[in-house]
Structures are given as structure tokens and as C-alpha cells.
Design brief:
Radius of gyration: 13 Å
CATH architecture: 2-Layer Sandwich
Distance between the termini: 31 Å
Number of helices: 3
Shape: globular
Largest sheet: 3 strands, antiparallel
Helix content: 40-55%
CATH class: Alpha Beta
Length: about 90
């Protein structure tokens, strides 16, 4: 059971959310789950703060978070995926 929650909020360019969500769903989320473990939630809104993606990951400790994030960043699949969500036409 997670005791520490990391909440990440990213602001995307107008209209970029559908393309971003598509590539994350098709490729990115599986890579993240492999390393990060417990995905608590992945959200976007069409009302209120728009063009934002919020995701929440659960960890057993801050050390667990640091180790898992380190493994994610070292994964060649994640490194190959990152440009797909950092491209200007994807919005970040």
C-alpha cells in the first residue's frame, strides 16, 4: 500500500491533449507502470484548468520513489519514448 503520493501536473499546448493521450496510452504508460508501480490516477479536464494532464503515482517511501524514478530514466525504452511527448506538436 502506498504511503507517499507524487502528483505531477503538466501543461500542454492548446489542442495537444488528444495526441498526447494517444501516444501515452499506446506506449508510455506501460513503460511507466513497469518501473513506477502503482498508478493512482491519470486525469485531464475539459472544464476549469484546461490543457493540463495530472498523474498520481503511489510509492511506499521516498527512497522507493527515487529508486523507481531512477530505473525509469535509465530504461532505453523510456529514453526512446520521451521525444514523442516532448515534441512541439505534442505540446509539452
Amino acid at each position: 500500500m502506498a504511503m507517499f503520493y507524487e502528483i505531477r501536473t503538466y501543461r500542454l499546448k492548446n489542442g495537444a491533449i488528444p495526441a498526447y493521450l494517444k501516444v501515452v496510452e499506446e506506449e508510455g504508460i506501460a513503460i511507466q507502470k513497469k518501473h513506477l508501480g502503482e498508478l493512482v490516477g491519470y486525469f485531464f479536464s475539459e472544464i476549469g484548468p484546461i490543457n493540463e494532464i495530472v498523474h498520481i503515482w503511489g510509492f511506499t517511501s521516498l527512497d522507493d520513489r527515487e529508486a523507481r524514478r531512477g530505473r525509469l530514466m535509465a530504461d532505453p525504452d523510456w529514453q526512446a519514448f520521451l521525444p514523442k511527448i516532448l515534441r512541439p506538436d505534442r505540446g509539452r
